[in-house]
Amino acid sequence: MVQFITVAAFLASAVAVSATAIPEAQSHVVVPASTKNDRRAMRRSGGSGSTYSGIATWFNPASQGGSTGACGPQEGDDSMIVALNAPQYGDLDAKSSWCGKKVKISYKGKSVVATINDACPECKHGSLDLTPAVFDQLGDAETGELDITWTLA
């Protein structure tokens, strides 16, 4: 009889503990920082006061991806256009709400304005892929990448 009461008491306490632990665990959901940042960026995408930071790389439209950007218009190496990172661009199979927007890109005191005309599938949130015409106004193409900030122009 003692063994039965001990097992019953153990089960009752386990049920009581799990009943109090489950609602507490459900009420406290930790969202990874990258998801939080992506959500914030989605909420503010297109907001004129938002500043983004990331890495600028460069590409040659004619030989890397074709002469038509994800947004549609033709682009060339001398075009003042950029490819927006995939997390901010959104569905890569559709035209983004970012398409056609002008951005002011800054690096070490230099700034240039360019138009979003393409998407960069491998770029991380905040990063842009620039044509040589845009990249050369900010830095030397031989460096390959620049730490930039940018806003809507």
Provide an overview of this structure.
The chain has 153 residues and is α/β, with parallel strands linked by helices. The chain has helices spanning 2-27, 33-44, 86-89, 132-138, and strands at residues 51-58, 81-85, 102-107, 110-120, 128-130, 146-152. A six-stranded mixed β-barrel has the order 1-5-2-4-3-6. The radius of gyration is 25 Å and the shape is globular.
Annotation keywords:
153 residues; 4 helices; single chain; alpha/beta; Barwin-like endoglucanases; globular
| Overall outline | globular
- Ends: how far apart? 80 Å
- Percent range for helical residues? 25-40%
In the CATH hierarchy, the architecture of the domain at 46-152 is Beta Barrel
Q: Strand order, main sheet: write it out.
A: 1-5-2-4-3-6
Biggest sheet record: 6 strands, mixed, barrel
| Residue share in β-strands | 25-35%
Write down the overall mean pLDDT: 77
Low-confidence stretches: 1-46
* Helix and strand element order: HHEEHEEEHE
State the name of the first-level CATH class of the domain at 46-152: Mainly Beta
Radius of gyration, rounded?
25 Å
Question: Going by CATH, what is the homologous superfamily of the domain at 46-152?
Answer: RlpA-like domain
How many beta strands in the DSSP annotation?
Answer: 6
* CATH topology type of the domain at 46-152: Barwin-like endoglucanases
| Tally of DSSP helical segments | 4
* Helix-strand makeup class: alpha/beta
Pfam families: DPBB_1
Keywords: Signal
Signal peptide: 1-19
InterPro entries: Expansin_CellWall (IPR051477), RlpA-like_DPBB (IPR009009), RlpA-like_sf (IPR036908)
